[in-house]
User: What shape does this take?
Amino acid sequence: MEFLQRHQWRCCRRKHFVWYYRLPYETGDGQNLVTEDVTVVEGDVATISCRVKNSDDSVIQLLNPNRQTIYFRDFRPLKDSRFQLVNFSNSELRVSLTNVSISDEGRYFCQLYTDPPQEIYTTITVLVPPRNLVIDIQKEIAVEGEEIELNCTAMASRPATTIRWFKGNKELTGKSEVEQWSDMYTVTSQLLLKVGREDDGVPVICLVDHPAVKDLQTQRYLEVMYKPQVRVSQNYPVQGLTREGEPLELTCAAFGKPQPTDMRWLRVDDEMPQHVVVSGSNLLISNLNKTDNGTYRCEASNAVGKSHADYMLFVYDPPTTIPPPTTTTTTTTTIPTTITDSRAGEEGSIRSVDHAVVGGVVAVVVFAMLCLLIILGRYFARHKGTYFTHEAKGADDAADADTAIINAEGGQNNSEEKKEYFI
Assistant: This one.
Protein backbone atom coordinates (compact mmCIF):
# COMPACT_ATOMS: atom_id res chain seq x y z
CA MET A 1 0.00 0.00 0.00
CA GLU A 2 2.84 2.37 0.73
CA PHE A 3 4.10 1.81 -2.77
CA LEU A 4 0.65 2.44 -4.22
CA GLN A 5 0.21 5.60 -2.16
CA ARG A 6 3.62 6.97 -3.02
CA HIS A 7 3.03 6.56 -6.75
CA GLN A 8 -0.66 7.60 -6.63
CA TRP A 9 -2.13 4.55 -8.25
CA ARG A 10 -5.75 4.77 -9.38
CA CYS A 11 -8.07 1.75 -9.29
CA CYS A 12 -10.61 0.78 -11.92
CA ARG A 13 -13.08 -2.11 -11.84
CA ARG A 14 -14.85 -3.76 -14.78
CA LYS A 15 -16.90 -6.84 -14.11
CA HIS A 16 -14.59 -9.31 -12.36
CA PHE A 17 -11.38 -7.52 -13.21
CA VAL A 18 -9.55 -4.86 -11.24
CA TRP A 19 -6.52 -2.98 -12.48
CA TYR A 20 -4.43 0.01 -11.47
CA TYR A 21 -2.80 2.70 -13.53
CA ARG A 22 -0.26 5.20 -12.24
CA LEU A 23 -0.80 8.95 -12.25
CA PRO A 24 2.14 11.08 -13.36
CA TYR A 25 4.80 11.22 -10.69
CA GLU A 26 4.92 14.70 -9.19
CA THR A 27 8.57 14.85 -8.23
CA GLY A 28 11.74 13.22 -9.30
CA ASP A 29 14.51 13.43 -11.83
CA GLY A 30 13.69 14.41 -15.40
CA GLN A 31 10.44 16.16 -14.43
CA ASN A 32 9.57 18.63 -17.22
CA LEU A 33 6.57 20.38 -15.65
CA VAL A 34 7.16 23.35 -13.35
CA THR A 35 4.65 25.44 -11.38
CA GLU A 36 4.38 27.44 -8.14
CA ASP A 37 1.86 27.69 -5.33
CA VAL A 38 -0.33 30.79 -5.34
CA THR A 39 -1.49 32.84 -2.35
CA VAL A 40 -4.13 35.44 -3.11
CA VAL A 41 -6.40 37.78 -1.16
CA GLU A 42 -10.09 37.17 -1.53
CA GLY A 43 -11.45 39.23 -4.43
CA ASP A 44 -8.09 39.60 -6.16
CA VAL A 45 -6.68 37.79 -9.23
CA ALA A 46 -4.80 34.48 -9.06
CA THR A 47 -2.48 33.47 -11.93
CA ILE A 48 -1.69 29.80 -12.53
CA SER A 49 1.30 28.93 -14.71
CA CYS A 50 2.12 25.50 -16.14
CA ARG A 51 5.61 25.56 -17.72
CA VAL A 52 7.60 22.94 -19.61
CA LYS A 53 11.36 22.82 -19.28
CA ASN A 54 12.13 20.76 -22.38
CA SER A 55 9.23 21.17 -24.73
CA ASP A 56 8.54 18.47 -27.36
CA ASP A 57 5.25 20.03 -28.54
CA SER A 58 3.23 17.84 -26.20
CA VAL A 59 -0.25 19.00 -25.18
CA ILE A 60 -0.61 20.98 -21.92
CA GLN A 61 -3.86 21.19 -20.02
CA LEU A 62 -5.05 22.66 -16.67
CA LEU A 63 -7.59 21.01 -14.36
CA ASN A 64 -9.46 22.36 -11.33
CA PRO A 65 -9.63 20.62 -7.92
CA ASN A 66 -12.59 18.58 -9.18
CA ARG A 67 -10.51 17.31 -12.08
CA GLN A 68 -12.50 19.28 -14.60
CA THR A 69 -10.52 20.61 -17.54
CA ILE A 70 -10.18 24.37 -17.40
CA TYR A 71 -8.00 24.75 -20.48
CA PHE A 72 -6.87 22.18 -23.06
CA ARG A 73 -4.15 23.92 -25.00
CA ASP A 74 -5.82 27.31 -25.73
CA PHE A 75 -9.37 25.96 -25.60
CA ARG A 76 -11.57 26.41 -22.51
CA PRO A 77 -14.11 23.64 -22.05
CA LEU A 78 -15.18 24.96 -18.62
CA LYS A 79 -17.95 27.56 -18.74
CA ASP A 80 -16.57 29.68 -15.88
CA SER A 81 -15.69 33.00 -17.50
CA ARG A 82 -13.55 34.05 -14.56
CA PHE A 83 -10.80 31.91 -16.07
CA GLN A 84 -8.97 33.74 -18.84
CA LEU A 85 -6.05 32.69 -21.00
CA VAL A 86 -3.04 34.88 -20.37
CA ASN A 87 -0.44 33.06 -22.43
CA PHE A 88 -0.24 29.86 -24.46
CA SER A 89 2.75 28.33 -26.20
CA ASN A 90 4.46 24.95 -26.53
CA SER A 91 6.32 25.67 -23.27
CA GLU A 92 3.72 27.47 -21.14
CA LEU A 93 0.03 27.63 -20.30
CA ARG A 94 -0.81 30.62 -18.12
CA VAL A 95 -4.35 31.23 -16.88
CA SER A 96 -5.81 33.96 -14.62
CA LEU A 97 -8.67 33.56 -12.20
CA THR A 98 -10.44 36.80 -11.26
CA ASN A 99 -12.52 37.60 -8.19
CA VAL A 100 -11.11 34.70 -6.20
CA SER A 101 -13.28 33.35 -3.37
CA ILE A 102 -12.86 30.77 -0.65
CA SER A 103 -14.53 28.15 -2.84
CA ASP A 104 -11.70 28.49 -5.38
CA GLU A 105 -9.11 27.31 -2.87
CA GLY A 106 -7.47 23.92 -3.48
CA ARG A 107 -5.16 22.00 -5.81
CA TYR A 108 -4.99 22.76 -9.54
CA PHE A 109 -3.31 20.22 -11.82
CA CYS A 110 -0.99 20.78 -14.76
CA GLN A 111 -0.81 17.82 -17.15
CA LEU A 112 1.58 17.17 -20.00
CA TYR A 113 0.66 14.47 -22.51
CA THR A 114 3.99 12.76 -22.95
CA ASP A 115 4.87 9.09 -22.83
CA PRO A 116 4.42 8.44 -20.00
CA PRO A 117 2.10 11.42 -19.16
CA GLN A 118 3.31 13.93 -16.52
CA GLU A 119 1.34 15.80 -13.91
CA ILE A 120 2.10 18.31 -11.20
CA TYR A 121 -0.20 20.41 -8.98
CA THR A 122 -0.21 23.92 -7.63
CA THR A 123 -2.11 25.02 -4.53
CA ILE A 124 -4.18 28.19 -4.38
CA THR A 125 -4.52 29.62 -0.86
CA VAL A 126 -7.11 32.34 -0.32
CA LEU A 127 -6.55 34.92 2.42
CA VAL A 128 -9.49 36.75 3.96
CA PRO A 129 -8.77 40.02 5.83
CA PRO A 130 -10.86 40.93 8.90
CA ARG A 131 -14.22 42.25 7.81
CA ASN A 132 -14.58 44.57 10.77
CA LEU A 133 -12.33 45.96 13.52
CA VAL A 134 -14.00 47.44 16.59
CA ILE A 135 -12.77 48.75 19.96
CA ASP A 136 -15.23 48.51 22.83
CA ILE A 137 -14.32 50.50 25.95
CA GLN A 138 -15.84 49.69 29.33
CA LYS A 139 -16.19 53.32 30.49
CA GLU A 140 -16.32 56.31 28.19
CA ILE A 141 -15.08 58.60 30.99
CA ALA A 142 -12.70 57.23 33.60
CA VAL A 143 -11.42 58.69 36.86
CA GLU A 144 -7.72 58.92 37.64
CA GLY A 145 -6.48 55.70 39.27
CA GLU A 146 -9.25 53.48 37.87
CA GLU A 147 -8.62 50.31 35.87
CA ILE A 148 -10.66 50.14 32.68
CA GLU A 149 -11.25 47.31 30.22
CA LEU A 150 -10.93 47.63 26.45
CA ASN A 151 -11.83 44.94 23.90
CA CYS A 152 -10.81 44.86 20.25
CA THR A 153 -12.54 42.40 17.88
CA ALA A 154 -11.39 41.37 14.40
CA MET A 155 -14.20 39.45 12.68
CA ALA A 156 -14.22 36.78 9.94
CA SER A 157 -10.59 36.54 8.90
CA ARG A 158 -8.57 33.72 7.40
CA PRO A 159 -6.16 32.77 8.87
CA ALA A 160 -6.75 33.99 12.41
CA THR A 161 -5.40 37.49 12.90
CA THR A 162 -2.99 38.77 15.55
CA ILE A 163 -4.05 41.85 17.51
CA ARG A 164 -1.54 44.31 19.00
CA TRP A 165 -2.22 47.16 21.44
CA PHE A 166 -0.56 50.58 21.67
CA LYS A 167 -1.05 53.52 24.03
CA GLY A 168 0.47 56.41 22.15
CA ASN A 169 3.81 55.00 20.96
CA LYS A 170 4.10 52.41 23.74
CA GLU A 171 3.08 48.83 22.97
CA LEU A 172 0.96 47.06 25.58
CA THR A 173 0.08 43.41 26.12
CA GLY A 174 -3.46 42.11 25.79
CA LYS A 175 -5.11 38.70 26.11
CA SER A 176 -6.61 37.19 22.94
CA GLU A 177 -9.31 34.56 22.33
CA VAL A 178 -9.98 32.86 18.94
CA GLU A 179 -13.32 31.54 17.74
CA GLN A 180 -13.69 29.53 14.52
CA TRP A 181 -16.80 29.61 12.35
CA SER A 182 -16.53 27.26 9.37
CA ASP A 183 -13.34 28.39 7.63
CA MET A 184 -13.32 31.84 9.28
CA TYR A 185 -11.82 33.05 12.55
CA THR A 186 -12.95 35.80 14.93
CA VAL A 187 -10.34 37.11 17.35
CA THR A 188 -11.07 39.21 20.46
CA SER A 189 -8.27 40.81 22.49
CA GLN A 190 -8.80 42.22 26.00
CA LEU A 191 -6.68 44.98 27.51
CA LEU A 192 -6.78 46.08 31.17
CA LEU A 193 -5.43 49.59 31.64
CA LYS A 194 -4.97 51.66 34.81
CA VAL A 195 -5.34 55.29 33.81
CA GLY A 196 -3.81 58.49 35.20
CA ARG A 197 -4.10 62.18 34.41
CA GLU A 198 -1.28 61.87 31.87
CA ASP A 199 -3.49 59.49 29.84
CA ASP A 200 -6.20 62.07 29.19
CA GLY A 201 -6.48 62.61 25.43
CA VAL A 202 -4.01 59.82 24.61
CA PRO A 203 -5.10 57.41 21.82
CA VAL A 204 -5.35 53.67 22.50
CA ILE A 205 -4.71 51.84 19.21
CA CYS A 206 -5.81 48.34 18.18
CA LEU A 207 -3.64 47.17 15.27
CA VAL A 208 -4.16 44.03 13.14
CA ASP A 209 -1.25 41.87 12.07
CA HIS A 210 -2.53 39.79 9.11
CA PRO A 211 -0.95 38.68 5.79
CA ALA A 212 -3.96 39.89 3.80
CA VAL A 213 -3.89 43.48 4.97
CA LYS A 214 -1.45 46.21 5.99
CA ASP A 215 -1.91 49.10 8.40
CA LEU A 216 -5.39 48.06 9.49
CA GLN A 217 -6.07 49.71 12.83
CA THR A 218 -8.63 51.54 14.87
CA GLN A 219 -8.27 53.76 17.93
CA ARG A 220 -10.12 55.37 20.81
CA TYR A 221 -9.08 58.45 22.77
CA LEU A 222 -9.05 58.15 26.54
CA GLU A 223 -10.96 60.68 28.61
CA VAL A 224 -9.71 60.82 32.20
CA MET A 225 -11.06 62.99 35.02
CA TYR A 226 -8.58 64.08 37.70
CA LYS A 227 -8.45 66.36 40.74
CA PRO A 228 -6.81 69.82 40.55
CA GLN A 229 -3.10 70.40 40.37
CA VAL A 230 -2.30 73.58 42.35
CA ARG A 231 0.73 75.88 42.10
CA VAL A 232 1.50 79.12 44.02
CA SER A 233 3.82 81.74 42.51
CA GLN A 234 5.25 84.97 43.94
CA ASN A 235 4.57 88.00 41.74
CA TYR A 236 6.20 90.62 43.99
CA PRO A 237 8.91 90.97 45.07
CA VAL A 238 10.11 89.30 41.90
CA GLN A 239 13.41 88.31 43.45
CA GLY A 240 15.01 88.63 46.84
CA LEU A 241 13.78 88.61 50.38
CA THR A 242 10.39 89.55 51.75
CA ARG A 243 11.26 92.46 54.04
CA GLU A 244 9.27 94.30 56.66
CA GLY A 245 7.41 97.27 55.25
CA GLU A 246 7.43 95.97 51.67
CA PRO A 247 4.43 94.53 49.75
CA LEU A 248 3.85 90.87 48.86
CA GLU A 249 1.67 89.52 46.04
CA LEU A 250 0.94 85.80 45.48
CA THR A 251 -0.97 84.11 42.64
CA CYS A 252 -2.60 80.66 42.75
CA ALA A 253 -3.03 78.61 39.57
CA ALA A 254 -5.07 75.38 39.46
CA PHE A 255 -5.61 72.92 36.60
CA GLY A 256 -7.88 69.88 36.62
CA LYS A 257 -10.59 68.01 34.76
CA PRO A 258 -13.18 69.33 35.12
CA GLN A 259 -11.67 72.78 35.63
CA PRO A 260 -11.73 73.74 39.35
CA THR A 261 -14.62 76.02 40.28
CA ASP A 262 -13.86 76.55 43.98
CA MET A 263 -10.57 78.23 44.97
CA ARG A 264 -9.75 79.87 48.33
CA TRP A 265 -6.84 81.15 50.43
CA LEU A 266 -6.30 80.36 54.11
CA ARG A 267 -3.58 80.60 56.72
CA VAL A 268 -2.46 77.28 58.19
CA ASP A 269 -2.77 76.97 61.98
CA ASP A 270 -3.77 80.62 62.39
CA GLU A 271 -6.31 83.22 61.32
CA MET A 272 -5.80 85.28 58.18
CA PRO A 273 -4.51 88.79 59.07
CA GLN A 274 -7.12 91.51 58.62
CA HIS A 275 -4.89 93.62 56.37
CA VAL A 276 -4.51 90.74 53.85
CA VAL A 277 -6.50 91.34 50.66
CA VAL A 278 -7.70 88.26 48.70
CA SER A 279 -9.03 88.86 45.20
CA GLY A 280 -9.92 85.67 43.34
CA SER A 281 -6.69 83.72 42.90
CA ASN A 282 -4.48 86.58 44.17
CA LEU A 283 -3.35 87.36 47.73
CA LEU A 284 -1.90 90.81 48.55
CA ILE A 285 -0.19 92.17 51.68
CA SER A 286 0.65 95.84 51.12
CA ASN A 287 2.83 96.35 54.22
CA LEU A 288 4.58 93.29 55.60
CA ASN A 289 5.37 92.90 59.27
CA LYS A 290 6.67 90.03 61.30
CA THR A 291 3.23 89.09 62.58
CA ASP A 292 2.49 87.95 59.00
CA ASN A 293 4.97 85.07 59.29
CA GLY A 294 3.37 81.70 58.63
CA THR A 295 2.14 79.26 55.98
CA TYR A 296 -0.45 80.44 53.44
CA ARG A 297 -2.39 77.76 51.58
CA CYS A 298 -4.33 77.86 48.31
CA GLU A 299 -7.02 75.17 47.99
CA ALA A 300 -8.84 74.19 44.78
CA SER A 301 -11.53 71.54 44.24
CA ASN A 302 -13.64 69.99 41.49
CA ALA A 303 -15.99 67.02 41.12
CA VAL A 304 -13.11 64.54 41.52
CA GLY A 305 -11.41 65.90 44.63
CA LYS A 306 -9.48 68.69 46.37
CA SER A 307 -5.80 69.68 46.28
CA HIS A 308 -3.67 72.47 47.75
CA ALA A 309 -0.30 74.20 47.56
CA ASP A 310 1.49 76.01 50.42
CA TYR A 311 3.64 79.17 50.60
CA MET A 312 5.83 79.72 53.68
CA LEU A 313 6.27 83.42 54.47
CA PHE A 314 9.17 84.72 56.58
CA VAL A 315 9.47 88.49 56.95
CA TYR A 316 13.04 89.82 57.27
CA ASP A 317 14.24 93.09 58.81
CA PRO A 318 14.02 96.15 56.58
CA PRO A 319 17.21 97.48 54.93
CA THR A 320 19.10 100.08 57.09
CA THR A 321 20.78 103.41 56.05
CA ILE A 322 23.62 105.01 58.18
CA PRO A 323 23.72 108.90 58.32
CA PRO A 324 26.54 110.40 56.24
CA PRO A 325 29.63 111.53 58.28
CA THR A 326 31.27 114.92 57.48
CA THR A 327 35.04 115.31 57.00
CA THR A 328 36.63 118.83 57.08
CA THR A 329 39.92 119.54 55.29
CA THR A 330 42.29 122.56 55.50
CA THR A 331 40.48 124.12 52.59
CA THR A 332 37.20 124.03 54.58
CA THR A 333 35.66 121.68 52.03
CA THR A 334 33.15 119.23 53.46
CA ILE A 335 32.96 115.81 51.81
CA PRO A 336 29.79 113.92 52.75
CA THR A 337 29.89 110.15 52.65
CA THR A 338 26.67 108.12 52.82
CA ILE A 339 26.85 104.41 53.59
CA THR A 340 23.67 102.49 52.65
CA ASP A 341 22.91 98.96 53.71
CA SER A 342 21.88 96.77 50.79
CA ARG A 343 21.53 93.08 50.13
CA ALA A 344 24.28 93.18 47.52
CA GLY A 345 26.92 95.09 49.58
CA GLU A 346 26.45 94.29 53.25
CA GLU A 347 30.12 93.48 53.78
CA GLY A 348 31.28 96.85 52.36
CA SER A 349 28.72 98.61 54.55
CA ILE A 350 30.07 96.91 57.67
CA ARG A 351 33.62 98.05 56.82
CA SER A 352 32.42 101.66 56.31
CA VAL A 353 30.62 101.57 59.66
CA ASP A 354 33.83 100.39 61.38
CA HIS A 355 35.83 103.29 59.90
CA ALA A 356 33.19 105.78 61.03
CA VAL A 357 33.25 104.41 64.58
CA VAL A 358 37.07 104.68 64.71
CA GLY A 359 36.89 108.27 63.45
CA GLY A 360 34.33 109.13 66.11
CA VAL A 361 36.50 107.73 68.88
CA VAL A 362 39.53 109.70 67.65
CA ALA A 363 37.47 112.91 67.58
CA VAL A 364 36.30 112.35 71.17
CA VAL A 365 39.92 111.81 72.33
CA VAL A 366 41.12 114.99 70.60
CA PHE A 367 38.23 116.94 72.10
CA ALA A 368 39.08 115.65 75.61
CA MET A 369 42.74 116.64 75.21
CA LEU A 370 41.75 120.15 74.12
CA CYS A 371 39.52 120.50 77.17
CA LEU A 372 42.39 119.35 79.44
CA LEU A 373 44.79 121.88 77.95
CA ILE A 374 42.28 124.68 78.50
CA ILE A 375 41.83 123.70 82.16
CA LEU A 376 45.60 123.55 82.75
CA GLY A 377 46.08 126.96 81.12
CA ARG A 378 43.52 128.58 83.36
CA TYR A 379 45.11 126.94 86.41
CA PHE A 380 48.59 128.31 85.56
CA ALA A 381 47.25 131.78 85.01
CA ARG A 382 45.53 131.88 88.39
CA HIS A 383 48.63 130.82 90.41
CA LYS A 384 50.86 133.39 88.69
CA GLY A 385 48.61 136.24 89.84
CA THR A 386 48.80 135.05 93.41
CA TYR A 387 52.63 135.26 93.39
CA PHE A 388 52.67 138.88 92.33
CA THR A 389 50.09 139.80 95.00
CA HIS A 390 52.16 138.34 97.85
CA GLU A 391 55.23 140.18 96.65
CA ALA A 392 53.56 143.62 97.11
CA LYS A 393 51.68 142.86 100.32
CA GLY A 394 52.24 145.57 103.05
CA ALA A 395 53.04 148.45 100.69
CA ASP A 396 49.48 149.63 100.35
CA ASP A 397 49.66 151.74 103.62
CA ALA A 398 53.10 153.33 102.97
CA ALA A 399 53.38 157.14 102.63
CA ASP A 400 55.98 156.98 99.90
CA ALA A 401 57.88 154.53 97.80
CA ASP A 402 60.81 154.07 100.09
CA THR A 403 58.58 153.38 103.05
CA ALA A 404 56.56 150.89 100.93
CA ILE A 405 59.70 149.00 100.05
CA ILE A 406 60.84 148.88 103.64
CA ASN A 407 57.42 147.88 104.99
CA ALA A 408 56.66 145.34 102.21
CA GLU A 409 56.35 141.80 103.43
CA GLY A 410 59.28 139.87 102.36
CA GLY A 411 61.58 142.97 102.27
CA GLN A 412 65.25 142.95 102.96
CA ASN A 413 64.68 142.15 106.61
CA ASN A 414 62.69 139.09 105.71
CA SER A 415 64.58 138.07 102.61
CA GLU A 416 65.58 134.82 104.11
CA GLU A 417 61.98 133.90 104.72
CA LYS A 418 60.90 134.44 101.12
CA LYS A 419 59.81 131.34 99.37
CA GLU A 420 58.87 130.91 95.79
CA TYR A 421 56.65 128.16 94.52
CA PHE A 422 56.76 126.96 91.02
CA ILE A 423 54.43 124.49 89.54
Observations:
- The chain has a mean pLDDT of 81.
- The CA atoms of residues 392 and 408 lie 6 Å apart.
